[in-house]
Amino acid sequence: MPLQPVLSTVFVIGVFCIRYAILTQECEKLCWPTITLPVASMSYMGLKRWSLCESGYKNQIKFRGEIMTRPIKFESAIVVASRKIVLVTGFFLGIVSSSWAEGPKCAPASQAPQEVVAVVRQMYAALQKDDLALFQAQVTPDYYAFDTGTRFTAESLVGLIKMLHGQGLKFEWTVPDPEVHISCNQAWLTYTNRGSVESASGKTPAEWLESAFLEYREGAWRIRFFHSTQVPAPKS
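The structure corresponding to this sequence follows.
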C-alpha cells in the first residue's frame, strides 16, 4: 500500500484532534468575560466570540459589521466538535481500510504454473504466425523485452521476427523443463530454449537462456518482461 495516503490521513486526523484540544482548553476557562476562537464554518469564515459568566452563554457572531447574538449551551460546542471529529476520522479511516482490503488479487495457486507456461508458449505461437494481436493478448500494455542487446516493445519484436521471416529464416522455440515461481499475482520462470534456426543453407540447432516475468491481471496471466540470451555455438 502507498505511504502517501496513510500520511495524509494521519495529518488530517491530527489537525482535527488539535482543534478539538484547543477548543476544550479554551472552553474550560469559564470565568473569562469573552473567549475568541477561530472557527471554520460551511456558511462563513470568521470569529466566534463566547460570552460566559456574567452575560450567560451566548454566541456572538460579527457579520457584515453587525453583532448578532443568540443563546447557546456551553456544552454544545464540545458535542459539535466531537461529532465532526468522529465523522471525519471515520471517513478517512474508511478510505485507508478499503485501500488495504483492495490489495492485489492472487491467482488460483493450483493451476498457476501450467497457465504461466502456456502463456509463454502462446507468445511463441504468435511470433511464428507474425500475429501482433495474438502476441499483445499474451502481454501487458507496458511489456518490453531484452534480446540481442536491444530493448523491444511488443510491436517492434513482432516486426523484427516478421522481417526475418521475410528473409527466409524459420525459427523453432521450445519451453522445456521451466522453473516456475509464483507469488500471489506475480510469476517468473527460467528455462533453456532448445530450438533451431533454419535458412536456405539448412537447419542449425540453437539454444537461448530465457526468463519471463508475468502478472495476474483481470483473471489472466500476462507477460510484463521477457529476456533472451543466445548460447554461443560450440567451437568446432
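Confidence is low (pLDDT under 50) at residues 26-58, 70-75.
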